[in-house]
Specification:
Layout (H helix, E strand, L loop, with lengths): L2 H6 L1 H14 L3 H25 L1 H14 L10 H4 L1 H12 L3 H12 L3 H26 L7 H18 L4 H10 L11 H9 L11 H9 L4
């Protein structure tokens, strides 16, 4: 299952419906937030794993202990694990957490008082997905996580390139104000992934790619 399949599939939709019911935010906004936040979270994790072997091993242990992928079969867990998800994001983003949340809030239209709690619901699902991919890839130590995470991002970008008219891109274009359909790839999700991966100088999705690029600061 690819990252895009996670977002657009049963698990992603169930979590979006839970968040919609709890916070009164439209399901499409939640899906768009997940599509933008997931690659940013994974990119930060990859950066930490590549830069610090201790961080990589800690992530590997956390995935083994708490994120075995079972949540993908029971997405209803996310509401009960919202506080845990917030703690995960505080560790991942560190001092940049407020800035990341602010940029995501501005671009998805989700207010700052709700963006953090919603991300807290999304984080365990994303971590569970990474844990499942780790198992399926046979990665047993922190040393292999950088490549695994890079592969997840690259696979999502390739899938976005091959599906320029997917429903997810329509959701992103409508929620993010993607008036860039005639620019570069014309594919909001691919543009977002490209910006996270450092993929060029696209002016996409109302400037979201530039903002994410600024957040990440070229972190590879």
């Amino acid at each position: 299952m690819s990252l895009i399949d996670l977002i657009t599939g049963t698990a992603g939709n169930q979590v979006a419906e839970q968040a919609e019911n709890k916070f009164g935010i439209s399901k499409n906004q939640i899906i768009a937030l997940m599509a933008v936040a997931a690659p940013v979270i994974i990119s930060y994790l990859r950066k930490k794993s590549n830069d610090d072997p201790q961080e990589a091993e800690a992530l590997n242990n956390a995935l083994d202990k708490d994120h075995d992928g079972s949540i993908l079969n029971d997405p209803s867990q996310v509401e009960a694990r919202q506080q845990e998800g917030g703690s995960i994001l505080s560790h991942i983003f560190g001092g940049e957490k407020a800035n990341v949340e602010n940029q995501l809030s501005q671009n998805t239209g989700i207010s700052m008082d709700k963006i953090g709690p919603i991300l807290g619901m999304l984080a365990p699902l994303i971590m569970g997905y990474i844990g499942k991919q780790k198992q399926q890839s046979g990665v047993t130590s922190g040393g292999g996580l950088g490549d695994l995470l890079g592969g997840i991002l690259g696979g999502a970008q390739n899938q976005a390139q091959s599906q320029p008219s997917s429903p997810l891109n329509d959701i992103l274009a409508s929620v993010l104000g993607g008036g860039s359909q005639d620019q570069t790839s014309g594919n909001p999700l691919n543009d977002i992934l490209g910006s996270v991966l450092g993929g060029g100088n696209q002016q996409q999705s109302g400037g979201l790619g530039d903002l994410l690029g600024g957040i990440l600061g070229g972190k590879r």
